[in-house]
């Protein structure tokens, strides 16, 4: 099954919620729930560290410690997510297949599978 718009071949499609049907949700692994915010915090800390290096006299030790701690959390969450990935894929596929109505975000074309 191809997840593309039949009209413009765009991959930017989204399922339309159907009234009267229980909304099927993919099971999002907990590791992903940790991984995404951890990556954002890590990026933020890296940016702060770089800014402190550029505009000050080096990153503070608090920032450095925090960066290392968040980096370790990212690695652990990344590893856990890697282990959860096969289950997550199956869950996502089941979710995609359970969706009958789709809408394209590029050309607003709506269709039913
Ligand atoms: Zn389209």
Summarize the structure.
The chain is mainly α.
Protein model, in words:
The chain is mostly helical and 113 residues long. It has one domain. The protein is 57% helix and 9% strand. It has helices spanning 30-55, 61-98, and strands at residues 13-15, 101-104, 110-112. A 3-stranded antiparallel beta sheet has the order 1-2-3, with no helix packed on it. Strand 2 and strand 3 form a beta hairpin. Helix 1 runs antiparallel to helix 2 (61-98). The chain is elongated and about 60 Å long. The structure holds zinc ion. Zinc ion binds at residues 5, 7-8, 10, 104, 106-107, 109.
Compile the SSE list and pairings.
Elements: E1 13-15, H1 30-55, H2 61-98, E2 101-104, E3 110-112
Antiparallel strand pairs: 1-2, 2-3
Helix pairs in contact: 1-2
Number of helices: 2
What oligomeric state do the depicted chains represent?
single chain
Bound small molecules, by name, code or SMILES, are:
zinc ion
Radius of gyration from CA coordinates: 20 Å
Number of domains: 1
Based on secondary structure, the structural category is mainly alpha
Uncertain runs: none
Describe the main β-sheet briefly. 3 strands, antiparallel
Strand order of the largest sheet: 1-2-3
| Strand composition percent | 5-15%
Helix-strand string: EHHEE
Number of separate strands: 3
Distance between the termini: 10 Å
The helicity comes to 55-70%
Q: What average pLDDT do the residues reach?
A: 88
Broad shape: elongated
